[in-house]
Amino acid sequence: MTGESSQAVRIAAIGDLHIRTQSPEHLEADLIALEGQVDLLVITGDITESGRIPEVEVAARLLAPVRVPMVGVLGNHDRRGLRRTAMRRMLEDSGLVLLDGDSRDFAFRDGLTVGVAGVSGTGGGFWLDEADAEVGSRLRQAVSVKARRESIRLKKALDTLRRRGPDVAIAVMHFSPTTTTLGEEPVLKHWMLGNSYLGRIIDEEDVDLVLHGHAHLGNRDGETSGGTPVRNVALQVTGGISVFEVAPGKQVRSIGDSPEPPECRHSETSRIRMLDMIRND
User: Fold this and answer.
1) Can you tell me the distance from the alpha carbon of 40 to that of 8, in angstroms, rounded to the nearest whole number?
2) What is the DSSP letter of 100?
3) SS3 27
4) What does the alpha-carbon distance between residue 228 and residue 110 come to, in Å, rounded to a whole number?
5) Structure pTM?
6) 268: closest CA among 61, 30, 15?
7) Each residue of 68-86: b (16+ CB within 10 Å) or e?
8) 9-14 and 242-247 as β-strands: parallel, antiparallel, unpaired?
9) What are the tens digits of pLDDT across the range 25-63?
10) Domain segments of the chain: what residues?
11) Which CATH number applies to 9-280?
12) What's the pLDDT tens digit per position in 141-183?
């Protein structure tokens, strides 16, 4: 955006909590411990398993003690619930800013500003990138229309963000804008996990970092065809909270990642190690 500041903002990110009757083990302590260590927490959707109010209540209790600015989007599982207005109100009352085709600016130390634009996104496919992916023509047309609609909403949000000129621009979505973070997901399921329209919009709008979830069998690091950094922060991929330093000019550096496999990353020892890495970096 403005590109005048050489400072970096520290972003914590997580998605796909799929909360039912209780929150993931140790996550509450991990989130509370972010205070003073990061500037912003981003949540990339599927906070709940089915959007039911009891699940939302658990999620709201999890987020309420967090003393870091929080911003995020809803995922496809969140949208299964029938009481969406009540769901949004409860999550926003806990301190989470929910984006849905709009954007928000955050101001930090020494005047550094970060703009975040968000949409849930949708499937739709990457047919221009993957000749082997096949979906029936009628279904293909339907999902393509929805994918285009969501990409237009993202473009409007990013256009508005660009006019305000933050130092760092971040796009947040639940679905992926690229196949490069889909990892071991079956190719025939790629059309359900994201679409290339989102990636094109991102490259047109000069975004420094994209954060998404949804692809549980994916990998963390990727990029759009235009070279914009993309990170899949689904809990099933990362095993916990990911932390990044982001500076103008698409400069993204990972901090505090635990080397253990996902099934081991929630141990108390691993959690303390990750927080020490963040503090001492």
Assistant:
1) 12
2) S
3) helix
4) 26
5) 0.88
6) 30
7) bbbbbbbbbbbbebeeeee
8) antiparallel
9) 789 999 999 999 999 999 999 999 999 999 999 999 999
10) 9-280
11) 3.60.21.10
12) 677 788 999 999 999 999 999 999 999 999 999 999 999 999 9
